[in-house]
Design a protein that fits this description.
about 35% helix, about 160 residues, flat, single chain, 3 helices, alpha+beta
C-alpha cells in the first residue's frame, strides 16, 4: 500500500505541475501586450534676459529711523544709476523686493533680551535684455553702497520661439 500511495502522490504532483505550466504558457486570446516609447530632445539656446538682484543693508545702533533713511538714500542712488542703464522700451524694469526692518538683540548675562541696534534690508531687482550691461550694473551698485549681490540669473524670455 505504501508503493501505491507514494505513486499516487507523485502522479498528482507531476500532473499539477504540467497543468500549471500549461496554463501559464498559453496566453489568453484577448491579451495584446503593451508597447511603451519615451523620447526627449534638448536644444541649447542663448539667454536673452538677465535678472540681477542687488542687496542694500544698513544698520544703526540707536535709531531705526536713521537706518531706514540711510538705506533709502543708498537705494535711491543705485536706482537712479540703474535706470540710466536699462531700456524700458524693450521691457526692462527695476523694482524693490524683500524690504525689511528689524531690531538687533543681544542677551545679557542674566538672560535679559536687549536691543543693540537696528538693521534694514532692501533688495533692488533689475530685469534687463541688455545682457552685456549686467556686470556694469553690479559694479556701479557696489560703488554706490550696495552690500551684496543677491543673485544673477540668465534666462530666455520666450521658450515657445
Amino acid at each position: 500500500m505504501k508503493k501505491t500511495l507514494a505513486g499516487l502522490l507523485v502522479a498528482l504532483f507531476a500532473g499539477s505541475a504540467v497543468i500549471a505550466a500549461t496554463s501559464e504558457t498559453i496566453p489568453p486570446k484577448d491579451d495584446r501586450g503593451t508597447l511603451s516609447l519615451r523620447t526627449s530632445a534638448n536644444k541649447e539656446i542663448a539667454p536673452d534676459v538677465a535678472d540681477v538682484t542687488i542687496v542694500i543693508q544698513t544698520k544703526d545702533s540707536k535709531s531705526l529711523q536713521k537706518a531706514v533713511e540711510d538705506n533709502k538714500e543708498i537705494s535711491n542712488k543705485i536706482q537712479a544709476a540703474l535706470k540710466g542703464m536699462i531700456n524700458p522700451a524693450k521691457g526692462d524694469y527695476i523694482k524693490t523686493e524683500n524690504y525689511s526692518a528689524s531690531p538687533d538683540y543681544y542677551y545679557t548675562k542674566d538672560g535679559k533680551q536687549t536691543i543693540k541696534g537696528y538693521t534694514v534690508n532692501n533688495n533692488i531687482r533689475v530685469n534687463t535684455r541688455e545682457l552685456e550691461k549686467a556686470g556694469s550694473m553690479i559694479d556701479k551698485s557696489f560703488e554706490l553702497g550696495a552690500t551684496s549681490l543677491g543673485g544673477l540669473n540668465f534666462s530666455v524670455s520666450s521658450y515657445t520661439k
